[in-house]
Amino acid sequence: MKEYTVAAVQMNSQPDLDLNLEQAYGFIKEAAGKEATLVALPENFAFLGKLDARLEESEKISVQAEKFLADTAREFGIYLLGGSYPVLSASGKVFNRSTLISPDGSTLASYDKIHLFDVDLEGGESYRESDYVQPGENEPVTYKSEDLGIIGLSVCYDLRFPELYRVLSKNGAELLAVPSAFTRTTGKDHWHPLLRSRAIENTCYVVAPAQTGLHGKSRKTYGHSLVIDPWGSVLADAGEDTGIIYGRCDPKHLEEVRRSIPSLKHRQL
C-alpha cells in the first residue's frame, strides 16, 4: 500500500440512466483533476428508482454502466469503484453489484450485495429489496493492489453486519468500501456510528460514497458521504449536498494505529 488520495462521490441519482452517468462523469473528471488515485461512486449510481423499474431496465443499465466505468477509468487513468448497479441473474432477479475497475479499464474485482434491505420503518416507510434482488454468495471479496493496498468490498445494508467486515479484516483489508444509498430515516441516527465502528474495530480506513436527497417522488437518502481513518476519525463529511470529498490513505498511519491498538492480534474468536 502506498500513500494515496481517495475521493468519495456524493450523488443524487434519479430514474434516468443518461442523466446519472453524465452527473457521475463530471464528478469523476473533477476528482481525477485533483489527483485522486481511487474514485468511489455510491450505490445505484447509474439508476435510482423503484425496484421494479430497476429490474425491468437492468440489462440496459448494466451494459451501459459497465462500459461507462471501463471507459472513464481508462480515460482518466484512475482506479474507479462502481458503487453498485443492477445485473440480471439466472433467477430473473438482479444482483446489486459493486465493481473495482483498474486504470486500464479492466475489472479487478466484483461483489454482489449479500444482505438485502427488507424493513418496515415508522411512518409507513417500507422496503423489500429481496422481491427483486438476488443475494450474492456468502463470499467476502477483497482485492490486493500495490497502489491501493487491500480493499474490502461491501454495499450499504452490509454495514449492519460486523461479521462481514471482520472476515474482510482477517483477509487483510486495509480500506473498507461501503457505497450506499442509506435512507434519511435511519441515516440520521445510525450512519456515522456504524461506519466509525467498522473503522475502529477493524483498524481500517473506510470510504463510504453515498446518495443524497430526493429520488423520484418519495425516496429520500441521507447523504453524508464519509472518509474515515483507522482510529475512527472522520477525515471528510460531504453533508447533504452533491459533490466530492477527499481523504489520504497513509500506510504509516495505519501501521501506527495497529501498533498502538493491536486488537486484531488479540482476537480470540
What does this structure look like?
This protein has helices spanning 17-33, 51-56, 58-76, 162-170, 184-202, 251-260; strands spanning 4-10, 38-40, 79-88, 94-101, 107-112, 118-120, 126-128, 141-145, 149-153, 175-177, 205-208, 212-215, 219-222, 226-228, 234-237, 243-249. The protein is globular, with a radius of gyration of 17 Å. Strand 6 and strand 7 form a beta hairpin. It has one domain: 4-Layer Sandwich (Nitrilase/N-carbamoyl-D-aminoacid amidohydrolase). The chain has six helices and 16 strands. By secondary structure, it is α/β, with parallel strands linked by helices.
Short characterization:
The protein is of the alpha/beta class and 269 residues long. 30% of the residues lie in helices and 29% in strands. The relative contact order is 0.17.
Helical fraction: 25-40%
- CATH architecture, by name, is 4-Layer Sandwich
| Full CATH superfamily name | Carbon-nitrogen hydrolase
Morphology call: globular
Report the sheet-strand fraction.
Answer: 25-35%
Secondary structure tally, helices: 6
Distance between the termini: 27 Å
Question: What is the H/E string?
Answer: EHEHHEEEEEEEHEHEEEEEEH
